[in-house]
Amino acid sequence: MSEAIRITRATAKKAKPKDSELAFGTVFTDHMFLADFQEEKGWYDPRIEPYGPLTLDPATAVFHYAQAIFEGLKAFRGGDGKVRLFRPQKHVERLNRSARRICIPELDPDFALRSLVELVKLERDWVPGSVGTSLYVRPTVIATEPFLGVRPARAYVYFVILSPVGAYYPEGMNPVKILVMEKYVRAVPGGVGEAKTGGNYAASLLPAEEAHAAGFTQVLYLDGVHRRLIEEVGTMNIMVRIGDEVITPPLAGTILAGVTRDSALALLREWGVAVSERQIGIDEVIAAARTGTLREVWGTGTAAVISPVGELSYRGERIVINDGRIGDLTGRLYQAIVDIQCARVPDTRGWTLEV
Ligand code: COI
């Protein structure tokens, strides 16, 4: 879509929170981006408007059959004051992959990228600059046709909202405790596990509530067939370091193709670390813990960045990792990624896009 973006500015501006008060996803900026889709027209009417409610008919398809996809990416303010998006093209590609699985019409990648850049540019004063803060960008597509039959809708809205954020977990960069979940699964082969669609997150709420009640921050899901292979945490991908090897589950359709996962793997390979994208059973992780070769476990995610795992609990057994402290590679990866995001080092990989 090459149509010009129509801009309607907010007349009243909201008060911006202090960087030190930022949590995750509680405050939204003054404007949002929108575009509509109708079968006869394709995507049309790209616009930036004051942030506000969407009015939808109660019969709207998304409310009933969850035909919806989203992305999560971040913009950072560098020490030079400039604002950069982190790997936005990769997020646009993934949005379109999710779209195909959920029967949502794809967005022209150049248009989608332009929507992110133009909105963040307009809201650049909202990008916080303190360590650990960023502007979280949430592109979303929902089916808007009011129709109760089960088939792909004929109308959609694409919107992008922005939220200044701090750390995702209340623990910040402190190691989190994770419950290895046997009772519930997140995805099965052939399902929607690799799509970033709201239903995956709705399905994760009960397991997470049960884990919280038992004193854990998150859940590590096992594969839906054998309940043995480690998969992902739901809000992040997982990596384990056993001896000198870093192992992470492969992208085989049941886990999200994390952008931070991809970035971490690229950095590890550049550093000469042995990396395997392969299936790994929880039994192998436990065996490594028992013999003392399980050195580090961490999660990777846009919201979570690099999140150290201090403890895994499986069938009532507590496995404390690296004495509950942040491991070497975990710390090094976190620092390397944040340094690239905030332009403290030159971006030699083309991962950042200045807006
Ligand atoms: C992200 O890391 O951006 C996510 O989307 C995970 C979660 C906050 C839903």
Provide a brief overview of the structure.
The chain is α+β, with helices and mostly antiparallel strands and 355 residues long. Helix content is 24%, strand content 28%.
Task: Give a verbal description of the structure.
The chain has helices at 61-65, 88-101, 109-122, 198-203, 205-213, 259-270, 282-291, 328-341, and strands at 6-7, 31-38, 42-50, 68-70, 73-77, 83-86, 134-143, 155-165, 176-181, 218-221, 237-242, 245-248, 274-277, 294-301, 305-314, 317-320, 352-354. A hairpin with a 3-residue loop joins strand 14 and strand 15. The model has no long low-confidence stretch (mean pLDDT 96). The chain is of the alpha+beta class and 355 residues long. The strands form two sheets. Strands 1, 2, 3, 4, 5, 6, 7, 8 and 17 form a nine-stranded mixed sheet that branches. Strands 9, 10, 11, 12, 13, 14, 15 and 16 form an eight-stranded mixed sheet that branches. It has two domains: 6-167, 2-Layer Sandwich (D-amino Acid Aminotransferase, Chain A, domain 1); 176-341, D-amino Acid Aminotransferase, Chain A, domain 2, CATH 3.20.10. The chain is built from eight helices and 17 strands. The chain binds 2-OXO-4-methylpentanoic acid (COI). 2-OXO-4-methylpentanoic acid binds at residues 72, 201, 235, 301-303.
